[in-house]
Write a structure and sequence with these properties.
The chain has 225 residues and is α/β, with parallel strands linked by helices. The chain has helices at residues 41-52, 71-80, 83-99, 115-126, 167-179, 207-224; strands spanning 2-10, 13-21, 27-33, 56-60, 103-113, 130-136, 154-161, 184-193. Strand 3, helix 1 and strand 4 form a beta-alpha-beta unit.
Length: 225
């Protein structure tokens, strides 16, 4: 497993990211989308964990070097994100992986957390090269995925006690996916809060839910990639 900062082409400009390679190559590839904090150590750690499980992992730096640990700053960064340009950055990340000699197939997976969960679904709806999407408690008020274009199955992982995403919103997303004839599996974790997978946040981290969600994520990615 080897992780390093890299730069890739994205619609005529460049985007930085964190690339982690497994010991055995070539391998299937997964894009990891940051939460509203930015490309922080937790996201790099998830990318490394994927590499440890046999996936090529790439986490694009969508804030272009900015990161924070303050919620107010994080919300400002999230709301200032140029969504159209972000879609191009994510498209560039997909193409970078498809062209990379370490990647085994002409399909990639994508997963994201909070803001990144919504962006993962958004990117999967816009890019046919994405063939598996994992949405960890996805939320972004400015991002509206075009579900009609979705070709990837979706694994949705949500918390019962999420202050940002009411259970009614989760049910609405499930219903919309069914209406469009899309394949989706959702799990809601009792007693868990938003951010339950983030082991760097002691208040929010829910070990039992995080363990189960990780096992489901790996099984899902292996099944579809």
């Amino acid at each position: 497993m080897r992780g390093a900062l890299i730069t890739f082409r994205a619609n005529g400009r460049t985007c930085d990211g964190y690339l982690s390679l497994p010991a055995s190559l070539p391998a299937p590839a997964v894009i990891v989308i940051q939460g509203w904090w930015g490309l922080v150590d937790h996201i790099k750690g998830v990318t490394d964990r994927l590499a440890g499980e046999g996936f090529v992992g790439l986490a694009p730096d969508l804030y272009r070097g900015k990161r924070t640990s303050e919620p107010d700053d994080a919300e400002r960064l999230m709301m200032a994100l140029n969504i159209a340009q972000t879609e191009k950055d994510l498209r560039g990340a997909v193409q970078f992986l498809l062209d990379h000699e370490a990647v085994a197939s002409a399909r990639v997976g994508i997963l994201g957390f909070c803001m990144g969960g919504q962006l993962a679904l958004f990117a999967a709806c816009a890019n046919a090269g994405i063939r598996a999407c994992v949405d960890f408690y996805g939320f972004h008020p400015k991002v509206q995925p075009d579900l009609a274009g979705l070709q990837a199955p979706v694994l949705g992982l949500f918390a019962e006690n999420d202050e940002y995403i009411p259970l009614a919103t989760v049910e609405s997303l499930k219903s919309a996916l069914r209406t469009h004839g899309k394949k989706a599996t959702f799990h809601i974790y009792p007693g868990a809060m938003h951010g339950f997978f983030n082991d760097t946040s002691p208040r929010r981290y829910h070990p039992a839910s995080a363990k189960d969600a990780w096992e489901k994520t790996l099984a899902f990615l292996r099944s579809h990639l």
